[in-house]
Amino acid sequence: MNFDTNNHSVFLLHYHLIMCIQYRNKVIDNTISNRLQEIFEYICPKYNILLEEWNHDVDHVHVL
């Protein structure tokens, strides 16, 4: 567990992000989900983010 700090505080934040497809169209399959996960994993170290969990359905993605 990594705590972030600034001048006056120490903190640990958890975000549960849900990304939905417009009009809830059913377009996310395993290939698209895997590519999205690769992109997130590439971006995460630049912002000191730990990707804990990744789940998808045909019309949305859950990121923790």
The beta-strand count equals 5
N-end to C-end Cα span: 14 Å
Order of helices and strands: EEEHEE
Shape: elongated
Main pleated-sheet profile? 3 strands, antiparallel
- Low-pLDDT segments: none
* Helix content, binned percent: 10-25%
What's the average pLDDT?
A: 90
Counted up, domains total 1
- Sequence of strands across the biggest β-sheet: 3-5-4
Strand-residue fraction? 15-25%
Description:
The radius of gyration is 14 Å and the shape is elongated. It has one helix spanning 30-43; strands at 4-5, 10-11, 17-20, 54-56, 60-63. It has one domain. It is built from 1 helix and 5 strands.
Any chance you could write out the topology, listing elements then pairs?
Layout (H helix, E strand, L loop, with lengths): L3 E2 L4 E2 L5 E4 L9 H14 L10 E3 L3 E4 L1
Antiparallel strand pairs: 1-2, 3-5, 4-5
Tag the structure with descriptive keywords:
64 residues; alpha+beta; 3-stranded antiparallel beta sheet; two-stranded antiparallel ribbon; 1 helix
Task: Summarize this structure briefly.
The chain has one helix and five strands.
